[in-house]
Amino acid sequence: MMEIPEIVGSGLIVIGAGLGIGKIGGSAMEAIARQPEASGKIQTAMLIAAALIEGIGFAALFA
Questions:
Q1: Helices 3-34 and 39-62, packing angle to 10 deg
Q2: Domain V-ATPase proteolipid subunit C-like, which positions (predicted)?
Q3: Domain assignment present for 52
Q4: Distances (CA, A) of 18 to 33, 37, 48
Q5: Which of 16, 46, 56, 58 could form a disulfide with 28 if both were Cys (CB 3.0 to 4.6 A apart)?
Q6: Does residue 32 fall inside a structural domain?
Q7: Residue 2 — φ and ψ, nearest 5°?
Q8: Cβ 24 vs Cβ 49: under 8 Å
Q9: CATH number, domain at 27?
């Protein structure tokens, strides 16, 4: 009986991390479209933020 809350919680963590990374990616693509000369800085910031969100998701799953 205790497995159901764990499964639901895990699903919410994965969905939340996926939505967060998707939002970051979409916003970065819009920013690169507006300022193509700054694409390197935008891409670097996007990757760092996505890695942090993924790390928090893994920590929440295995904690």
A1: 180
A2: 11-61
A3: yes
A4: 22, 28, 15
A5: 46
A6: yes
A7: -80, -10
A8: yes
A9: 1.20.20.10
Distance CA 47, CA 54 (A): 10
Q: Residue 33 corresponds to which tokens in the numbers above?
A: 């479209």
Identify each DSSP E strand in the chain by its residue range.
Answer: none
Secondary structure element (H or E) that encloses residue 37, with its range: none
Residue 60 has, within 13 A of its CA and on its CB side, a CA count of: 18
Domain count for the chain: 1
pLDDT digits (tens, 9 = 90+) for 2-57: 799 999 999 999 999 999 999 999 999 999 999 999 999 999 999 999 999 999 99
- 9-12-14-18 Cα dihedral, nearest 10 degrees: -170
| 1 is a domain residue | no
Whether 36 maps to a domain, the answer reads: yes
